[in-house]
Amino acid sequence: MPSLTMPKLVTGESSITRLIVMDVDSTLIDEEVIDMLGEAAGIGEQVSEITEQAMRGELDFHEALTKRVSLLAGMDASVLNDIYHQTHFTKGALELVRVAHERGWKVGVVSGGFHEIADLLVRDAGIDYCLANSLEIRDGKLTGRLSGDIVTKESKLEALRSWADAIGIPMALTVAIGDGANDIPMIQAAGIGIAFCAKPMTQKAAPYVLNERDLMKAFDIIDATH
């Protein structure tokens, strides 16, 4: 399984009642990082088309990611920091994390993107858990390969289950939010599954749909199910 960041529990966390797990690209943030890397490499259109095929469920995500990352071979790794500074948290994202924490909940992110970006976003937002891919870097350059296992729809679901188990809550008290085809299993398995400004396939599969690009609106759905 890909790298899974899990902090130790501390005394007093028995009051936690829910876990919110979100996708990163086009959910936690407005952008698709792999597409931004493609633009930086001068192959944006080619990478974006593969991304769209994967998000629509027309292309296996594992194959799509491998193809896109291979196109980045030779890129200077310093571009990752530049890309990070070009990302924007989705409206309501930081507020969602803050309010969740005020309620004593935990928040995690699962991403088919990269730890090199996701870890910085997690730090800035104060998010508790993170699952993402890691880019292989040698001599300051991207090799065009990933380091470790690839995050899949199955590993996203497993992260949701693992984190819920770690904080001692049933799946019924979990919330999953995402926009792509590889988010469908966790969305369907969560107590509350929300398709957020999602692709048609994901919207059709999800119990709840939110098409207003404001993550705080997720609380309208969450609170209505109490």
From TrEMBL:
Active site: 23, 25
UniProt record similarity statement: Belongs to the HAD-like hydrolase superfamily. SerB family.
Pfam name, any one: HAD
Annotated TM spans: none
Protein name: phosphoserine phosphatase
PANTHER family: PHOSPHOSERINE PHOSPHATASE
Species this protein is from: Bifidobacterium simiarum
Keywords: Amino-acid biosynthesis, Hydrolase, Magnesium, Metal-binding, Serine biosynthesis
Catalytic activity: O-phospho-L-serine + H2O = L-serine + phosphate; O-phospho-D-serine + H2O = D-serine + phosphate
Pathway where it operates: Amino-acid biosynthesis; L-serine biosynthesis; L-serine from 3-phospho-D-glycerate: step 3/3
Source species taxonomy: Bacteria, Bacillati, Actinomycetota, Actinomycetes, Bifidobacteriales
InterPro entries: HAD-like_SerB (IPR050582), HAD-like_sf (IPR036412), HAD_sf (IPR023214), PSP (IPR004469)
GO cellular component: cytoplasm
